User: Fold these one by one.
Assistant:
Number 1:
Amino acid sequence: MSTYSQKKGFGATLWDFLTTVDHKKIAILYLIAGGFFFLVGGLEAIFIRIQLAVPNNDFVSAGLFNEIITMHGTTMIFLAAMPLVFAFMNAVMPLQIGARDVAFPFVNALGFWLFFFGGVFLNLSWFLGGAPDAGWTSYASLAIASKGHGVDFYLLGLQISGIGTLIGGINFLVTIINMRAPGMTYMRMPLFTWTTFVTSALILFAFPPLTVGLVLMMFDRLFGANFFEVSMGGNTVIWEHLFWIFGHPEVYILILPAFGIFSEIFPIFSRKRLFGYSSMVFATVLIGFLGFMVWAHHMFTTGLGPVANAIFAVATMAIGVPTGIKIFNWLLTMWGGSVKFTTPMHWALAFIPSFLAGGVTGVMLASAAADYQYHDTYFVVAHFHYVIVGGVVFAVFAGTHLYWPKMFGTMLNEVLGKITFWLFFIGFHLTFFIQHFLGLWGMPRRVFTYLPGQGLSASNMVSSVGAAFMGVAVIVMLLNIIITSVKNVKVGNDPWGDGRTLEWSIPSPPPFYNFKQLPLVRGLDAYWLEKMDGKKGMTPAEPLGDIHMPNSSFLPFMMSLGLFIAAFGAMYHVDKEPWALPLMIFGLLVTFGSMFMRSVKDDHGFHIHKEDLIDDDEKGVKA
Amino acid sequence: MTSNQQLSSGNPSVDIEYRRKKNAEEMRYQVVSFSLMIFLTLVAFAAVAMKGFTAWFTVPFIMLLAVVQVIFQLYYFMHMSHKGHEAPSLFLFSGLFVGLVTVLAFSTIIWW
Amino acid sequence: MHTEEKMTYETWPAAPEKSTLEAKNKFLGFWLFLGGETVLFASLFATYLALKDKVPSTSHALAKDLFELPLTFVATMLLLTSSLTSVYAMYHMKNFAFKKMMVWLGLTVLLGAGFLGLEVYEFNHYVHKFHHTFTSSAFGSAFYTLVGFHGAHVAFGLMWILTIMIRNSKRGLNLYNAPKFYVASLYWHFIDVVWVFIFTVVYLMGMVG
């Protein structure tokens, strides 16, 4: 059982990834799938900007434009940003807490495949009669009137991938609560682990309302229910509430892991411990709590009444406080540190002003009375791109460069990395800064074109040019990945030289059991502490012994595939297709049959024997 | 996942008879709480069956009875009163809190 | 320690549901899942409350026309009692009395099946006597979705308990399956918790008006 990959055939590697329950391989799957959907969503963004570059453009039709903006938003949030942060959580969090595995390796794999099949299902809509066109929020008044199957693809696809996210969140929570290494108390956990913890809790409570909302709309569209059918007593505001009770925590689900990644980068490259660690933890938890109190600020103009608007406005502004605490802590971490300007540090430094700008417009939007002016204009578009791109996407780029060596054992090229950064950074501000003004000048969002002579033309062109910069930046990054992978120069445990947390104390990539002996954690930044004491590695907390590991399984793939098939059946059932109902039943049989198999077949995993571990070590020295 | 991360499966020196007695004692509490739950249910149904009360009394009253009954379920039947339920309580009550906010919103700021 | 190890009355731990790391993970993970389920049912309750008695015309039956005390009372008693029988099952599990545990679990399944039967009868009754269907009004959609979701949970719970009963009927209790029985019983209690709110909020409050 060697961990160092012998040459394996393509088929064997593919089967390995299809059946893996190893969190590090699942991380790679999330990275690839999330990266792919990021490219798809990015392409859609480029199409949007081409269409809007000049007035009266006819690059795409109005209907197609609606489909593109809907799919851009949905893809980027659910299929790109979420899986990409999940990739880093899977790759790094178990290593950071000194665990050999996650709590539920099988469930972890199932979560990935559900997300993957949900995403594929959603995107197949492009080829099967048209994509959803009711916006990524899919407001009921629009969505139940939408012709064709576009919105059905949205409902079923998100339902499937949403279940995957939910069980993934439970897995992370239990892992962090139950599987920390000896000495790893809660207040010694790295910040990225803390943000993973709070994010997972948000997932646990935010996804059920989405599930319910999607079920209700699915019942309306596919099975003749009347939740949103006003003439039958229904009420479309219910969807808006359910969606945003999910939707607002969702943005914190995205941004908190980003905060976590930056909270790792600042101390590493300032070579100084994180300033105000406990206040960072406090702020993270507080943001998580407040995240559930503010959803109605998306609905100020719905007509909730002045009392409700006032309450939600104040609660929203309150979130600025913990976020401000974090910003100051990051700044003070760098203060007096010896800062190294690596690629991840570039992204981290650029993140602060960019995200801050998004935060400031957030406070502007939070004031309910003023929001009546901003609502549904490009000001809002600028705001949420500043927080999501300036926060989450910057973090994903930063994390990719930071953790690439830990995940793949080789370093991305720093020069190309910095080129990516500058192109993207300039392109980002070029695209979105001007959109604040477009919004204030009255350009509504979600329109497919505008007339000349309204003072919008030049600014829109500027915005589109910026988008091109970002596109080129992503291409440079892809080239970087290809070049790096071809060269494949292997690196050691701590390639950045200043790693502070446990993941840097083990080989890159780590052996599949992570830690041969569980490390003894003596404080915050455990690995850094040992280095400062002049030691080469962690002190083991246990003698060398047999290691218990879970078996691979193909069942997660089959369970997800079953739901994927059943979703087609459910959808075409409405068209009275004779094959639809049998197909749905077949799909459900595949899923429940796999669940039954899982239930009756005992899976005790296997043991790696002590002798093999010693053997591995010697090979490691040679490699 | 390894043997050394596990806590020991229970102290062999624990007196089995003592444990058996404790289990039996707990079971008696369970039966008592079950009787109370049945009683609370009866009161709730009776409050609705007797037409004499206004809705302003009946609705809060039966809600209170439901809450008390659920506390019995959670703390006795689901053993939340036992040690080692700190994380379960935290997450259950967080879920309950989010749920209550949702119900509150849906009974106040949905147009009707 | 191996989870398949043959256990005896003497070696059986005090808390078999969390005596291994796998078991502890399962225990905690399932509780967290129940936390999420709480939000799920709360959302359904909220939707029901928002759409209660929302019908397109006065000819449609409202909550106070539909519900009857005796039927709901019998259903409630069945489910509450099944909660107690499942507590008995866990009591015998802790005492390593496999046969007795199976008997009580069997009773739980029977009571649950009785509850489901009543629910099917009830829905049928509403559809045929009152033309109160899933598609007849927003009220109908909300009612059948909330109560039906609960019913689906009951059905799933029955299948689950039956599956692990049959799977383990030959080999008795060990540390691998004890957490499974325990978690299934937690699920069953949670179903009962939801029902307490359903009979209060939907049926009793529906009859009060």
Number 2:
Amino acid sequence: MFSRNALTLTPIAAACCMLAACGNDDNGTTYGGLVASSAYVAGSATGDPTLKAGHYQGATVCVDANGNGKCDSAEKSATTDSAGHFSLKTADSGDFIADITTSAINTADGAAVSRHLILRASADQVKDQGDAGIVISPASSEVQRLVEANGSSYATEKANLATRLSGPAFNQGTATLSGTDVLADVNTLSGAAQYALLYAYNELGNRYTYATTKFDRGDKYPDALAVAGGDPRLSGLSGITAGETVPADTRKAISFEQAQQAAFNIEGVPAYDNIFIIMLENKSTDAVLGNSRAPQVNGYLAQYNQLTTYYSTGNPSEPNYTALGGGDDWGITDDNWFGCGAAGANAPTDSAFAGGSASDGQPLPKQDALPPLDSKHLAGFSTTAGAPCSTSPTGGTNHNAPGDNLFTLLSKAGLTWRTYSESMNPGQDVRADSIADPAVVDTYDETDSDGTHLVGTSNYAVVNGLYKVKHGPSIAYQTARKLPEFVADNRTIFGTQYTEADWKKTSVYTVPDGWMYDQFGADLAAGDVGTVNFVVPDQCDDMHGVGSDTSCSNNNNGKTDGITRSDIYVGKVVSAIRSSALWKNPQKRVAIVIMFDEGEGSSTSCCGWNAGGKNSGDAPVTVDAIGTATATSQPSGYGNGNIGHGNSIFSVITNQQDVGTAAKGVKDSDAYSHFSLVRTLQDMFQIADPGVDASYLNRAKYTEAFIAQNLTALPEFAGSADTHFDSVRPINHAYVIPANYVQRLNPVDVNGSLGTDGTVVTPQTGPDANQNNVWALK
Amino acid sequence: MRMYMKFRLAAVLGTTLLALTACDGGGARSTGGAAAGGDGGGGTSPALSLAAQVGQKAFFDKTLSSGKNMSCASCHSPQYAYGPPNSLAVQLGSDPEQAGVRAVPSLRYKDATPPYDDNAANPDGVTLASAGGGFMWDGRAATLAAQVALPLLNPVEMNNPSKDAVVQAVKNGSYAELFRQAFGANVLDDSDAAFTALGEAIEAFEHEDVSFHPYSSKFDLYVFNKIGGTLSAAEMRGLVVFNTAETGNCAACHYAGVSFDGNQGLMTDFTYQALGAPRNDRSIPGNPDPIPANDDPAYDDMGLCGPYREDHTPAQLGTPDPYCGQFKVPTLRNVATRSAFFHNGVFHSLNQVLHFYNTRDTHPEYWYPGSGGSGTPVANPDYALQPRYVPGASVAKFNDLPAAEQGNVDEEVPLGSGITPDDNVNATTLGDGVRPREVGAEPAMSEEQMADLACFLGTLTDGYQVPDAAPSSGPCVE
């Protein structure tokens, strides 16, 4: 990094000479600079992407005198050379634009640019960098966008971006970037600072490419599902339930500046840097909310934000996690291994993994093409040829889910993901359940925040299935398991009952040399957590229950020690995140979600569910470029899925509430489901495009407008008495609930059931106190 | 939507037509009276597999009985939700001199029933494992395919002398060729194999044909948030009674939630309970159809502990055995279309059943025969089995169970108090220390709550047609 000055002096000096030699004529100033790029190269197996630095060759550079985001013919322009350099003599004043079309080359990977991209550098930046030292990059665009978003100054946002990118970075050391550094050519940096800036280039470059798409396409602004009040497109559609809030559509074609902002607030969901989703098990809202056995979880709910009408989408665990991973449960109604029902084209194509090490140094032992073939490692495994869960199934519901999912989309975008799972056996195949280990023995002994001291069965040995792949949101997806980084992204997190020393006594696998017991803690310290992180406690710390350790006892009524045990664990995880440099960096946007895979009792859901039941004839759909859906033929068993399993709590904590000015205590009672969460994550990390329905994963695309326009392909939604409830929207609180609308809580088990505190659960009538967004940044 | 409805109706008509042809008239099955329960609508069956097509033929084949006068459908009538087409407590056999020993259950919504297990997981995920699963009132058939054999070979039912006789009837039947196509050219040459295949065929029909799980009730419209599914005020109050542990507590066993294999709303948790139903015998004045077997005072039908199920027969009769008196919890779907209730069919109206649950402990004189006493008999309410009660008479409570087994009766709400002993919070029975309701005490439900509950149970009837306009008056409106 310190070599930067030496490297960059030369071109600046050269440019000065050139300027001196050419001189200013009365037709303006001669500017010089470059357009810097990054390229994501697929194939890294460490969990951190391979990112290369380069320049854009063949980009058109101009001063955007009229501020319309285009290099107009009246605005003089220049074209960048093979080193990304430009020299432009112009009398125009304003921001610089680099118009990078598909005829430009990204020298970072030598490939033609795949989508039109406009980058810019502000006039203030030019003043700062000098006429001859202009660097146009995703970072320069970002600084100017922030100036416009916040009504602040170039100096402020330059410093803020430096703060944002500084700190422990990707286990490469501490990145220390000055404001000058973040706006410099990334090619001139090195080490952690360069990688941190490359990661930002890539992420920001994706966003600005998307902004350019929106601008070129003339999208209306804002996105339909971000319009305050409700989706204005519904006013012209038939089949929408009467009485819904549908505002008039007063939106106009998006401007360049609006597009820049819209790309960071897709469908009203702000861009975040990282999210941690802590998964708990099997409790309805009434078993947790107000439960004195869960003081910490209830503390977060009371102090921070929550969704009060959140629905699971399946039963039991595996369909819910699979829905969280890709927006559909594919008809899975059990917890069985991914080979079940996977016949013919669905048969697993997993490759053997040669071994290696993760970005944080975790040694990764080799894995065979499939995990050990027995029911201890693979739930439901059958040795009977032809049986649904054998390696040669002739029937059953396919458990090897097809197509894209959050993990493949993140990977393709050069973004990172992790699943941090507690209590994997050291050395085990990450696609297999953990197994009993008589040599790993300890006594649970922890204290909750309210002083409750919980001691479990003395010297209790590790039982089968503390770690279960049914609780892995990526596991069911074939394409996720085929990602080169798949093994490296399945990481460890600290335990409670069993220590690092305990696990090292294992008698069932060989502990890899240098095995890391707590990658989660290490990654928080080294800045190597993922963009999207699922945190999966083991079956004693997640309120599920397994074995007979008394501290692990669980029941769906919320009246067992397992609740306390899980509350303690959640507290530890949240505390670890909140103690990290990442969380404390005021320019980062980091969120924690505490949620459950499913409630209990009744089979209802919302928001993209199979709203017609098992006879509905629902099937996955294909969607063409203009959003027309065509039903595929129904896969065996598909109709049994996506039916739901009731309500549960959903808590949101953001670092902007701790180190910034974001409001606390936001309650959003609009109806959301796992499919809504998938849509929200796609918006949050810009791995979908609201202008392209097909870009949303599976049932996450089933918005109210989409369903109304495609009802013949979606028979499960025919005859709906509440089309808003039945359809997907991002979690953004844009919709205003009508005055007489009664909150739909899981009807069959909430009506008349008693909450933990003995009161009948009363659904809310009418809108929320305010329309604040649980993800709001300020 | 219109197209969808039309298609659905066509499928239903098809089923009915086929049922009629297979049934060669006879007039035993009326299409009136419970048409709603017979509608198999609510969805469309995919084309039946070959095996299921065989099963469909066999299901309506009267030649599969000794007198060539009785098919599966004779007792499991499609017009009555595959339950009995009349109010008889037990049905007559193919040999009309014979009568069955238990009421005929509905064959609808059986798909998710697991095989019987003494420690079956409860589908609600909460209740501790207990006896559960299986087919027949005592769970002695592990699968629907295995269940088929029991009525076929039972002398008091279809009365075939052997598997061979059944297979011979199939061979002579119109679908022998279809059978061979489905199960192999030589399948009918081996009676054991063919008989097993016949069970599999009928099971396939029951699994595949949507009429066995139509989900076409008003309740389904309600759960799935469909137009027409708005419950009336009375029905909604009834749902609350159904769910509320302190009043109806029905959902505790007639579990409405998510079940195994993606099923839901089955209104049973597949468990077994001893409810202490009165003996269906001649001790009930004016009893329209006492069970003939009950004429023998030494005969006791005790469900899980026998006499038909044999693995829990007490080692020594007359000693307490926890399995005695327990019968399977049936689905409540289409319950309003039935007129014979409980394993012994002792009740003939839903109203009577609800009152039994509510007053078994508080007013046992309504339900069980009394002896002794003196003075002017007091008239019992019209729903009671026993029309009157002599003051001071001693009442033979739980008279369908030997005294030693009466501790097994369920004392959960609304039957009993539901109050468990401190040292056994999971107890449910008298013998485990759950307190009964005191005689003469206030029952768990009011008359209004029971009326509302009946209204809610009415929403569980398949084939619901949404009226053009919601009714503005009637017993189940307000």
